[in-house]
Every structure is written in structure tokens, then in C-alpha cells.
Write the C-alpha cells for this entry.
Amino acid sequence: MDIRELLKKTVDQGKWINLRESGGSWIISLDLKGGRKQTVTLSTFSEGGHEFGRLKSKIAPAKALAGERPTAALKMNANLTFGSLVVEGEDLIMQETLMVAETTPAHLLASLQYIGEMADRYEKMLGGGDKH
């Protein structure tokens, strides 16, 4: 199953997902509890003859990680079900990488929901309102 088919089947299962393509990536808007929203971007790349999909959801500027927060963020990674907290450029994000050929719509749906909910939770913890 290619990435387009995987996304279509996943979106059909998750009625709380809005999808649009933009510049070779997919922008996935998730409707979360409490009227909140979170955006997850899916981009693809190839390595070693395999196609991968990378999910990313912005949380806050990386500069929000001051004092003990960088160590706390690294410790939180050990308990995440899907993905990890990473700094990319100037942003703190939740990220997960999936091998497209091995990913089912159910797995992608669970990953999207988890990444979106956790990114939103950390955004709230860092005082970011509902920006992403």
C-alpha cells in the first residue's frame, strides 16, 4: 500500500481528521477533546530502498525548554508509547517515523491520535495555548 492509499484508509477511519496536501507533504488537522486542535505533518523519504513516513507536530519554541526542562523532556521520551520529543531548528516537536510498507491504517490512526494528543498536552504544559 502506498502512502496515499494508507492516508485515505486512515482518514476514512478517523472522522476527526482533516487532510490536505501541501508541497509534497500532508497536513493533518486533528480535532481533539475540549474543542482543541493539533496539526501533524506527514512527509515521506526513502532510505535503504524503503519508503518512510515521518509524522511531526509542533509543540512550542525550543527556547521554552529552560532550566530543568531539557532533562525532563529526555526523561519523558522513555515513557512515550509512540514517537519522541525532539528539537528541530527552533522548535520543540513530537516526531515519529514509520516504514510505509509495514504500517496499517489502524497503526497510523493510533500514531496520529497519540502524537497529536501528546503534542497538545505538552503545548498546554508550556503555556502555549492552542497554537499548533
Remarks:
- The chain has a mean pLDDT of 90.
- DSSP finds three helices and six strands in the chain.
- The longest strand covers residues 50-61.
